[in-house]
Amino acid sequence: MIAPRFLRALCISTAALSSLLPQAGSPVEGQILDSITGIGLPGIKVTVSSVSLPVITYEIYSAADGRFRFPLVAPGDYTILFGAMGYLPLPPSDPTNHIFHVADMASPVHFLVQLTPLGRISGRVFDGDGHPAPNVQIEMLRPRGAGVSINATDPEGRFTVIGLRPGSYVLLARPMLPGSGGDEARRTTIKPPASDDGPRLTWAATYYPGSTDRAGAQMIAVHAGANLTTYDIHLRASEIWRVRGVATDDVGKPVGGAELSLHSSEPLTGPEAKAKTNADGSFEFAAVCPGDWRILAEADRGKVMWKGTATVSVGHEDVEGVGIHLAAPFTVEGYVELDGARVTSNSSTVMAALYPADPSRDRQITSTVRNDSAMRFEGVYPARYRVLVSGFIPGFYIDSVRLGVNDVTGQPVDLAPGCPPIRIGFRSGAGRAVGLVENAPGVLVVLSPKNDALVAAQFSRSGATGPDGRFDIGSLRPGDYYIWAFDRVDMAAMADPDFVRTLIPLADTVHVEQGEVEVTPNLKLTPWPE
Question: Given 14, 129, 212, 308, which residue has the most CB atoms within 10 angstroms?
């Protein structure tokens, strides 16, 4: 029996369409299954949209057994989409992603769709004495690229992290202890380890299965639909020390009331402790474990946010005299050049952004504001950045990224007030790579430069194969490339030279000449490594 909610959706959709469409066409129907259990999935929104204008859209929800049926769809060409939370999107090569045709008075167009659930992991966290550790922050971290899933343990130390895409992860349990200065809502109440008469001790952030060092973390492979259980972590005890210092402005004057946060070397995670400077600019973090840390400072100075940062290495003693210099934001100018000449008008989709070279420094990206190809990076603070370019100009390739007259292509640069403009140079005569992936329509072909300095999103290129498995990828910088055909790809991972090296045994190679079309070897489909 169809559930009332699904029946109402069907009735509303059919009633609305009956007044708009001619009574001609054929049914579109199918069933949506869980690829792991084979059970029908109810409540999945199914959308059928015409390819031609005006766009005609049909919507319905799958019934309790996963079945759906549009009784009458007008003749024409259509696409179909399945809106399913908690499931992987269908790969581009899946037949359901192809345009399909509906004829008049024909047999129903039928789809059998198998959706793969995202992964999950569960376990418990214990202190070093074997007691459950409640309200400990749990982080599932990608070893490369972006991505972190955060949860917390319950009163019995249990945790479950859901919605994990296939890939490799490390699992981290991060206690937020009273007195650390961290977020009150995330503080745990577990009893600290006994320190006797020695140094003060705390329960440290611990990687699965039981290491306080990222190098000792065990990689966890999460496959599509995986349900990983019993991933238990026993927290390790660690000495804690005090870190003290002073925050000053650009003329050496103490900055009182500045908000400070202490970050581990683990990128893209929140602060492990917080503090505030006194009126004389002094500050203290009372409980810091040994390791490399970064302190971020912010101060509101007349509606302008000043920022600063300092790196601290904590060994087996208190750290004194840490200095943090806060500065006001500034603007960096820039522009685009074509074949050495500045562009005076720009209708392309080229954009650029500044990424902090230290990923723990700031999560924000300072993007450009375009005005006739001129670029304005606003809200920049003194630090090291990478200049990354997105988009392309047909027939051109990125030849250089310059800071003033210096070529900084693929390199981090120090930016400070008064720095010269950023010049992004494009050159005509971009190369193209064409080829065939055998029996693989709609898969992704990726080219990555062999030069490590150029392994970044702006120099790697990708494109999908057509219905016949052929591809044509342009805007290539001349040089040598590795080339793959993947069923899916994480371009953030492809910007990591260390990760790309692990893919080299799976790659073919191609040499791209300026202004020429390179015919690649016939490629075979390679599963994306999880």
Answer: 308
Note the pLDDT tens digit of each residue in 35-57: 889 999 999 999 999 999 899 99
In whole angstroms, give the CA distance from residue 255 to residue 251: 11
Quick: pLDDT tens for 141-166.
887 655 677 888 999 999 999 999 88
Cα 335 to the center of its chain, rounded Å: 28
Checking if the pLDDT of 323 tops 90, the result is yes
Asked if 13 contacts 202 with a C-beta cutoff of 8 angstroms, the reply is: no
Peptide bond into 192 cis (omega under 30): no
418 shares a domain with 368: yes
Cβ neighbors of 226 (< 8 A, separation 6 or more) are 119, 120, 121, 164, 166
What single-letter amino acid sits at 382? P
CATH code for the domain in which residue 374 is found: 2.60.40.10
CB atoms under 10 Å from CB of 207, counted, come to 23
User: Where do the H-state alpha helices sit in 413-479?
Assistant: none
Are 163 and 232 in the same domain? yes
Residue 269 lies in a domain: no
Q: Are strands 67-73 and 148-152 parallel, antiparallel or unpaired?
A: unpaired
Q: Which residues contact 297 (CB under 8 A, 6 or more apart)?
A: 247, 255, 258, 259, 260, 277, 307, 308, 309, 310, 324, 326
Q: Based on the domain organization, do 345 and 418 belong to the same domain?
A: yes
Q: How many domains does the chain have?
A: 5
Of 72, 90, 115, the residue that ends a domain is: 115
**491 and 503 part of one domain:** yes
The domain in which residue 347 lies consists of: 330-428
